[in-house]
From TrEMBL:
This is Sulfotransferase. It is an enzyme of class 2 (transferase). Its EC number is 2.8.2.-. One of its GO terms (biological process) is hexose biosynthetic process. Keywords: Membrane, Transferase, Transmembrane, Transmembrane helix. The chain crosses the membrane at residues 78-97. The lineage of its organism: Eukaryota, Metazoa, Chordata, Craniata, Vertebrata. Residues 253-517 form the Sulfotransferase domain. It comes from Nothoprocta ornata. One of its GO terms (molecular function) is N-acetylgalactosamine 4-sulfate 6-O-sulfotransferase activity. Belongs to the sulfotransferase 1 family. Pfam families: Sulfotransfer_1 (PF00685). It comes from the Eukaryota.
Amino acid sequence: MRHCINCCIHLLPNDLHRQCFRCRGPDHGNQKCPLCKGESKVALYRDSKQMKLFAVLEVRTDHGENWNGLFCLKKGKICSLIFGLVIMTLVMASYVLTGAKHGLLLLPSPFHYGAFASNPSLMDNESLTDMKDHYQPSKINVSYVKDYPSIKLIIDTIASKIEFITRQHPDLEELRKQESHMFSVIPNKFLPNSKNPCWYEEYRGNTTADPYTTNSYALYSKRFRTIFDYLRKVFWNHLYHYKDKHYRLRCLPHFYIIGQPKCGTTDLYDRLRLHPDVRFSAIKEPHWWTRKRFGIIRLRDGFHDRYPVEDYLDLFDLAAHQIQGVLQSQAAKESGKMSRIVIGEASASTMWDNNAWIFFYDNSTNGEPPFLIQDFIHAFQPNAKLIIMLRDPVERLYSDYLYFASANKSAEDFQEKVAESLQLFGNCLLDYSLRACVYNNTLNNAMPVRLQVGLYVVYLLDWLTVFDKDQILVLRLEDHASNVKYTMHMVFQFLDLGPLSEKQEALITKSPASNTRRPEDRSLGPMLPTTKAILRDFYRPFNTKLAQVLFDDAFLWKRT
């Protein structure tokens, strides 16, 4: 049986296939197509083994069509599908056999390291993870492995590459060039009768306008709008009038809880804010120094407009109003009394998150950030106090995974992600310094779990290049959990806070712990023993150095 393919191609689009001879009757091969008029045309053999596969016609038929033809068409499609599956199976089998023979049956790493970009340009909507294109392929390719001996080999390689090299911090003029607006807003001298860095700033806005109308925290988050609604109501009552001008009191925090995430910083914050002398920012974790001032709201969304320093200062207006009330009271004026109120800020990203540097600062130090968060904080507040809460980094990582992973959480999945992250980190260390890898945005985004957050000593040493050791209080979550009263007294003494009544102290020390593990996460159980052993090996040299810096073997976490 045969019919003219040229006719059918011509007729089908106009639904005129009834004019074709429809392959009917045993003598169809002897009939002439009325459009072809017997001329030689390209024939499509439908029941022949010589069928050409350069065209597939989907013939629509009415109920009077021959069902046998339709069956043949379906059978042809099924045969083609089966043929394709057979070919695919043979190809995959060949790959598997070849890979097993040569030891290449592992997936290649999707992340390689080469030269770091120098001052990359960044479009407004470009995601952080999209910046991988700024890096060139590495000379090597590390494949993912899951067995303990192979991972142990990677950890040993990482340990051999660890060098704790003292960082050279930039001078003040370099910092001014990078953040000129910030330096124009924050003065270099503060009021002498306040423990906090406070100053009066002339208010040049319209007295009938909303002073917070452009504040980015209020614009981008519905959670904060209630706070700013209250600030609007009380703002005008706290303006200071002097010689026909209006002034507002501005303040920065006296102390910062700078880290680390999943180490008990929320519980410390909740207890500390119950002290009558302590005031915090209107928002618990502004993340301004690390993210918002660069325009990062959520990492997955890329960059937005940068939050100016004025928006950050607005968060301390409630505390500034109370400090102003003390300073302007008649008794304080007469006796020169200093306000005992201290302001705190508790963004757990402050200690470690410098991911945005590569998009805003020239890379002039072999992949290492030329400026860090602490450089700018110290430039404005050389007397600031810093509180760090740490935890066994092995347990911290598992808690971090349980809290931030969105789906398919399990101990087995955690181990796979740990293995992948270790190989990515080890791959980076083959070409770059420890500091360059720890602060590498692309690496940090590529790793499925945040290994780098547990490298406490790397961050601490960098903070110690600009702040004195007596300005930093380092606590352990394990000690805090076992004896809350003791750790809180250490904090009170460190911040030089006023005495408490027994009732006030009981309220602070006996309240339930905050931000504990969720029930659904507890039901997943602990990590696998193999995973724990892997992470113990990885973090051991970093913990050893940390214990040496702090002169405290408790930071080896041998008993946990």
